[in-house]
Amino acid sequence: MYDNTIRSGGKCLTTTGYNSGSYVMIHDCETAIPDATKWEIQSDGAIRNPKSELVLTASEDSWGVINLVVDKNIYASKQTWYASNITKPPVTTIVGYQGLCLLAFQSSVWLEFCVSYNIEQQWAIYPDGTIRPPKNQDGCLKYANAGEDVVRVGTCDGGAEERWRFQSDGTILHVMTRKVMDVKDATAILPEITVNNYNRRNTQIWFQV
């Protein structure tokens, strides 16, 4: 809206407080505290409350219930929002270095010769910035830098490790580290995937087909 509110059924999206973890709900616009109903939609997909400087976050409680809260922006997939009528993610093949295809088998990810209709070379691209194997859409492409320094498929948890952004220059940005997807060792028989600082190498260029 022109007044920086987000409305549904004539009511306003409203934060109950300005601290991390404060719940967000739908409230009557006229009686709500004005600052609690103001939101800024950021270019990276975050929705920010200016008063608290916190962003809208999907938070799962101990019962498995997803609640909306405000929290510090850690660039997690659970903090990414886009207005769209499309609820089914597009499925694509991701092609990289030397025309090889990105492939997932269980948790491992590598490049391999492209094979038509190979489901292990297909990826569902979600609007929250996650990239998922179609046959296991509870699994997300992740880079955690936890000793191995490689990209793997792990259980989606809404964290920052699983958020990616396809960029206009052909790179795939890992939003948390601000590095781009890259081939770890281009001479390997089955090259694994990592992230690196952008340096214009052709191992960092990807496209969807």
UniProtKB/TrEMBL annotation:
<dbReference type="InterPro" id="IPR035992">
    <property type="entry name" value="Ricin_B-like_lectins"/>
</dbReference>
<dbReference type="InterPro" id="IPR000772">
    <property type="entry name" value="Ricin_B_lectin"/>
</dbReference>
<protein>
    <recommendedName>
        <fullName>Ricin B lectin domain-containing protein</fullName>
    </recommendedName>
</protein>
<dbReference type="Pfam" id="PF00652">
    <property type="entry name" value="Ricin_B_lectin"/>
</dbReference>
<feature type="domain" description="Ricin B lectin">
    <location>
        <begin position="88"/>
        <end position="209"/>
    </location>
</feature>
